[in-house]
Amino acid sequence: MNTQLNFKRGIRTTLFILVVILFLTVVLLPIYYIFLTAFAPSGKLFTVPLTYVPRSLAVARFQDIFGALPIARYMLNSTMLATLSTVLALTVSLLAAYAIARLDFPGANLVMIGLLASSMLPGTATVIPLFQMFQTLNLMDTLHGLLILYGSALLPITTWVLVSFLRQVPVEIEDAAKVDGASFFPLLWRIVLPVIRPGIATMFLINFIIGWNEFFTPLIFARGAGVKVITMALSEAQVIGARSEFDVSWGNMSAVAILTTIPVFIITLIFQRQIVEGITSGVFK
Amino acid sequence: MFGQQNLSTRRILLAWLLVTPVVLWRLLTSVYPFLRTFYISFFDNSPVRRTFDFVGLDNYIALTRDSNVDATLTFTLFFTVTSVVLQVVFGLAIAELLNQRFRMRNLTRAVNLLPWAMAPIVIATAARWIFHQDYGLINDIIWRLSGERPLWLVNFTTARFAVTITDVWKNTAFLSVIFLSGLQGIPLELYEAAKIDGADGVRSYWYVTLPLLMPLIISMIIFTAIFRVLSFEIVYALTNGGPGTATSLLSYLVYLEGFRVLNFGYASAIAMLLFFIVLLVGVLGYGFLRRAWERL
């Protein structure tokens, strides 16, 4: 009897472990394959069947793409745009979120719903007039022009999440500070900011990832090399040294894919908990 | 001392002052351009031909006669339904998996998030290599198992599945995180009560877990469906909408008409069609959601 029970439990555990392994394989194998492609020595790229355990790794492709494209510039632009748009969006969203969560005013709900509705407006349904506006205002190919669009995309969800974080924090501390005569900005800076720091940190991480991964906006609004970003290098790397339209360098593409992905992987692996909290607080609270 | 009236007027003024930057920023970069798109859709507007002529409903009439639009709507429907169903099913399964206790659970949860964190354009571009007929990862596995090497991106049906599979791989993580959080919110007492009533394993999942998660599942279906309709990068980089127009999506069509053909008026009409589909999904979904809440 007892051994039979143990046997049953053993089968269940084994099956469970197999499912976990299958899950990890489905997620990780494609990523590993891109890694293999990026580091495969030239000539070892096209083999049938594939070799999953490489004998040697080569960094030649990384030298190639850094030589042929201003990769460092692209990565700097991506970093600047992602960081600055995040800081700007967090600043103005915090102001709005404070007003919505704390200052009971007519129109607060309208602002919340308006923000949500505007985030459902497809980017493709606004891109043509924006393109025309940017041409008239000389904002094409400028970092500040891109910053306006990057930041705009982050506002609705950032405001929503900060409102939900603020509503979880008791108001009493702020009331006490108000009684002591603290005026608004010192109150915000010294009392409110410290208590919702987790919310701000979470939205900083998520917004940075969104900004870093942006592609459609720079595709339309950043055409000069000085303002291009790393996600645009994928297609450019594919044609380095190409002899025809169909001569695609998968190795170079994979090398750029690795460079684009490493920063977001590091952030995700370190701050997994915070990111999950941010994702779910946007939905539940 | 301030009067009550005075204090509340000051508070309201301060509140509006604080929300103004966000509201103004969104009005200028989202609401106004959207209304302007609607306006342009009634014009023949081309930066190449330097035209801006009122043409009434001509662009919308052209829309009904455009076979590219037909093909795009067909694929949008296929892609949205298939991808949403797969994401919800896998999302629920992965949430259940990550809710179990096991060694390395935290690491597995972190790994689950990796596709979510990757740029859509990276995944779409890399997927083209992964689905490569001779040297791609997928065909290597299929070839080892069956000796076949399907031409993924050349055939209509397989290309459609390639796009869908890639999309599911990237976006299921998001749903599973939401569902996991939903699972953790279900009180354990309910399961104990179900156990006393004789429901165990699959049955308690069916009678306890699923009904409680249902409003969440429905709202996530709406959300996911809307973002499938809006997808751009995945077909831009993986298939270019091809073969032919087999995997074309509306955002991609707007991009082609607007920024390759430079036909702003017609592209705006397509963008409005896209908007109405999103609106339709949202309104229908909201109706279902309200019914689900009433049932709970």
Account of the 3D structure:
The complex is a heterodimer of chains A (285) and B (296). The model of chain A has no long low-confidence stretch (mean pLDDT 90). The longest helix of chain A is centred in the N-terminal third of the chain and has 38 residues, at 2-39. Chain A has 2 domains: 2-58; 62-284, Orthogonal Bundle (MetI-like fold), CATH 1.10.3720. Chain A has 285 residues and is mostly helical. Chain A is 74% helix and 0% strand. Chain A has helices at 2-39, 60-68, 71-102, 108-119, 127-136, 143-168, 172-179, 184-195, 197-213, 216-221, 233-238, 250-270, 272-284. The radius of gyration of chain A is 24 Å and the shape is flat. Chain A starts with a helix and ends with a helix. Chain B has helices spanning 4-40, 58-65, 67-99, 105-117, 120-130, 137-146, 156-184, 188-196, 202-229, 233-238, 250-260, 264-295, and strands spanning 43-46, 51-54. A two-stranded antiparallel ribbon of chain B has the order 1-2. Chain B is globular. Chain B folds into 2 domains: 1-29; 58-295, MetI-like fold. The model of chain B has no long low-confidence stretch (mean pLDDT 93). Chain B is built from 12 helices and 2 strands. With 296 residues, chain B is mainly α. The interface between A and B is large, with 87 and 81 residues.
